Amino acid sequence: MRILLMGAPGSGKGTQAGFIAQKAKVSSVSSGDLFRKNLSEKSELGILAKTFMDRGEYVPDDVTIRMVLDWINDPSNTSGFVLDGFPRTLPQAIALDEELGSVDKVIFFDVPNNDLIERLSGRLICRTCQASFHKIFYPSKNGMICDKCPDELYQRDDDKADVVTNRLKVYMQETQPVIQYYAKQNKLITVDGSKSVDEVESELEMALND
Ligand code: AMP
After folding, report:
1. In this predicted model, what pLDDT tens digit does every residue of 36-86 receive, in sequence order?
2. Distance in Å, CA 90 to ligand 1 centroid
3. C-beta 58 within 6 A of ligand 1
């Protein structure tokens, strides 16, 4: 099973990726996490990606496509996967189709813009397991410590207000056409991402069983 998760920053893709991967019995990866991992290791790729991430822009297609296809072609991932945050541009979607033939399901998390800004400004991430929380809507039981592993939570630099505005603009320009691309292929499953985490999970469970 090859599943793609699409939606604006803050639409809940990352929160649900683990649940979907567990139901589909495959591994999951987030392209943003791959960039952040490279950055924490101070690799050339990570340092390059940071210049784009800090401005809320997309990392160039050639670099992003190579990084994600390397992950897909790793023997532990070839039987299937959940991809969170890739593809985000038409060239990325075309490169993925050329590599794989096609994908099975594309899940689109639909959330109104006002909710996205509110969610991103309160979002907290675990430094170790990358689990995502929200200061008000989905707090960790242990305050600023992750309740899935014992590391601290932090606010991503690109979740700060000035960068968020640009991320949403880039998403509208570059990624909306990708959603249409999969709608035309009849692959798109739209879930109401404005609902609670549990309600979205129930909607996803039904979508995955179809
Ligand atoms: P995310 O964690 O998904 O919000 O991604 C964080 C940042 O990583 C984005 O704002 C982009 O700068 C970069 N990024 C992640 N995925 C992609 C992608 N598919 N194409 C280009 N840039 C990406």
Report:
1. 999 999 999 999 999 999 999 999 999 999 999 999 999 988 889 999 999
2. 14
3. yes
